[in-house]
Amino acid sequence: MMKWLQDAVFYEIYPQSFYDANGDGIGDLIGIIEKLDYIKELGCNALWINPFYDSPFKDAGYDVRDYKKVAARYGTDEDAVRLFEEAHKRGIKVLIDLVPGHTSEEHEWFKESSKAEKNEYSDRYIWSDFIFNGIEGHPYIGGEAERDGVYMLNFFKCQPALNYGWLTPTEPWQKGIDDPACLATRKAMADVMRFWLEKGCDGFRVDMADSLVKEDDANKSGTCRIYRDILPGLWHDFPQAAFVSEWNNPDQAINGAGFDMDFYLNHPGNGVNSLFRDYITEGEDRSFFRADGHGDIMKFLEEYQPRYNKTMMSGYISLITCNHDTPRLTKTLTKREIELAYAFIFTMPGVPFLYYGDEIGMKYREDLPTKEGGYFRTGSRTPMQWNSGKNLGFSEADAADLYLPVDDAPDAPNVEDAMKDPDSLYHTVKDLIALRHAHKDLQANTYCEVIYAEKEKFPFIYKRGSFIMVLNPSRETMTNIIPAGFEKVYGIGDIEALPVDESDVLKVGPQSFAVFKATTEKAREAAIAWKQ
Ligand code: GLC
Fold it and tell me: Which of 44, 371, 403, 470 could cross-link to 11 by cystine, CB 3.0-4.6 Å?
């Protein structure tokens, strides 16, 4: 497992909305450079930056027109190199976004591929051979190109699917994954990765990583084979490069494909959804972190534990506060509920990701019309709020020229005020990250054992090395027992351990969380043997 990931805490930047250094109303790479000290002070030591490549921006840059060119609105390739260098000077690693599954319809490869006469790129995308040979089970487009047949889409209409082949071709126009045309696609994508690694990035977040091969089997063995082919060659030349997948199946992504980390994403009804965004089950919000959500940690653990058990020796599950595709937690959770959620995210194993603005509790904006294919996601993509000045410090441009409007609510949080207020969410985040950096047992690797978890009961207690975490998101108060000799090293709310004979009585107040550390060898031993 990649050594530097052990203590990595990532910060995700949506470049459009982070900081506008040149006053044109949209964030840029120089703007990110100017805020690196801020990110370092917060305690994050790694970045994931959403796509900054040349694009018509019909899907916010996930429609790449040129993989090897920074979009003019963000700056130049030289700015990207400077960003990598400046980040490295501060001990910050940078992962950039790789979109391997599709390009923009304006990409040169696709223009060539659309031509009637055969050329090098004819099979770079998935085309059927005849207009009525639609692509069963997949969206496709006809009537737009000179050549016969229709082409397959990967996401929006503007995003034709690149051709990595079909696991079991059944039609003459379907290529196998080792067909020379599909090998050429694979090689082209490895070449893009190498291009940016040579420029100094530290790896990639891989978009829709699980869906390269069409009609793959249940284990995604075709797609896995492709990464198994690409990644070792890159590691040979860039041994520190790290890769995180948008896959949501760590066993496949890590053990199958060889990724370092896999995101645990919010999908309706899944484990992580039950923690933070279970808005509609049984007609009400049942999220575990809602004080009145009748929380059920088992909904999470039943899915998480098998995933964790299968991958803890080989890679990391990445819990996220949010991302550019997901409503921010502020949509439904209060400040205290969010603090407890973050306390959990930053003390669990794996590699955590913090989404820009989540450290100050930026709002999820329900009211915004879709921007660049954002739809409901637009509400999580608004400009970062730096201070109480013009455009909340995001940009010097006129408000009408901003990429998206800044939050105009009178209580919109901003970084400057949050830093001054010791009770702000910012300080909770900063303290939690510092706690994680200070103790190896709270970082990526140390085994996590569930001590107490029961359906619709509180608290949730888990143990990592010399540390015991106690989490009670409910409004109830309760008493538990923990082994004697533990000292509280971090706490939210009213929670304490009172010595009684050989063990301590734990008083757990409403909406509280604490990290207890074994202070003696005896306590450590007792904790190892301890179950409830
Ligand atoms: C991923 C990205 C999302 C994008 C889609 C298509 O899910 O995170 O923002 O729209 O892929 O590339």
Answer: 44
Indicate whether 432 and 492 sit together in one domain. no
Closest ligand 1 atom, residue 377 Cα:
9
440-481: pLDDT as tens digits = 999 999 999 999 999 999 999 999 999 999 999 999 999 988
Q: Shortest CA distance to 25 belongs to which of 382, 387, 415, 410?
A: 382
The finding on whether 325 has its CB within 6 A of some atom of ligand 1 is yes
> Which range marks the domain in which residue 495 is found?
447-529
| CB of 207 sitting under 6 A from ligand 1 | yes
pTM exceeds 0.70? yes
Among 438, 457, 486, the domain boundary falls at 438
Element (H, E) at 258: none
Residue 64 CA, ligand 1 centroid: distance in Å: 12
Residue 367 lies in a domain: yes
pLDDT tens track for 101-116: 999 999 999 999 999 9
Residues 217 and 265 in one domain: yes
Position in ligand 1 atom list of the atom nearest CA 155: 6
C-alpha 498 to ligand 1 mean position (Å): 49
Residue whose structure tokens are 């107490």: 452
Q: What is the CA radius of gyration of the chain?
A: 24
Residue 32 inside a domain? The answer is yes
Ligand 1 mean position, distance from CA 94 (Å): 19
How far is 507 from 504, CA to CA, in rounded Å?
A: 9
Residues 124 and 260 in one domain: no
**Distance spanning both ends of the chain, measured CA to CA:** 32
Final residue before a domain boundary, out of 415, 438, 461: 438
**296-327 per-position pLDDT tens digit:** 999 999 999 999 999 999 999 999 999 999 99
Q: Please give the distance, rounded to the nearest whole angstrom, from the Cα atom of residue 510 to the centre of ligand 1.
A: 38
Is the same domain home to 86 and 134?
no
User: How many domains are contained in the chain?
Assistant: 3
By most ligand atoms within 8 Å of CB, the mutation choice from 207, 244, 355, 381 for ligand 1 is 207
- Identify whether residues 219 and 309 lie together within a single domain: yes
Residue 39 sits in the same domain as residue 81: yes
Residue among 12, 13, 52, 62 whose CB has most ligand 1 atoms within 8 A, to mutate: 62
Q: What is the pLDDT of residues 275-300, one digit of tens each?
A: 999 987 667 899 999 999 788 999 99
- CATH number of the CATH domain containing 473: 2.60.40.1180
Identity of the residue numbered 240: Q
Residues 6+ apart with CB under 8 A from 224: 252, 256, 257, 258
Q: What separation in Å is there between the alpha carbon of 496 and the centre of ligand 1? A: 44
CA–CA separation, 435 and 433 (whole Å): 5
